[in-house]
Amino acid sequence: MQQQESEETSLVYCESCKIFVNISNLLSHSCFNCTIINNDTNHEVVDKPQQHEEVETVEELLISLVQLRPALWDHLIALKNRSKNIKDDLWVEIFTAMGQIISLEEIKKKWRNLQRQIHKVLSVPPPSVNINPSSLYEGNAACVAIAEILNKLPQRNKAKLEIELLRLVYDTYDQYISDSGCSNC
User: Fold this and answer.
1) SS3 category, 3
2) What is the mean pLDDT of the chain?
């Protein structure tokens, strides 16, 4: 294990499981899980009690360290506060906080890959919801026509209109129930 200490955190990089461990939790780390002899009053051999610790991967640590430095990701900050020199200094801070285990270029590469993955996930539109007008709105020609129009719209507009359509259908149904005086409906 390689040790790294900084003013932010004291971390140790575990070579066997490839994660960073807080130095205060080092003995409870899963790689140190072993049998303790004569731990109880009966002098029996017992297993060390299992403790569930949150494991912070390199990516999670990188995200949390970058999140503390908005100049690296927030484009709403003034340019003078996120200049190249400032960003380079912040990347060096992250490099030292991660224990200088991974090279600075590798850290930046991991961050770019994480950003790409996030943007890829966020850019995928939600799955299309196609309404089958004939089965959903039997006997109501207006609803069938509206549903057919909805199926031709882009997904973002369709979701808003579906909500409005359902609200209109429910309001119309409630009005029908109150006007007809139907107590069983």
Assistant:
1) strand
2) 70
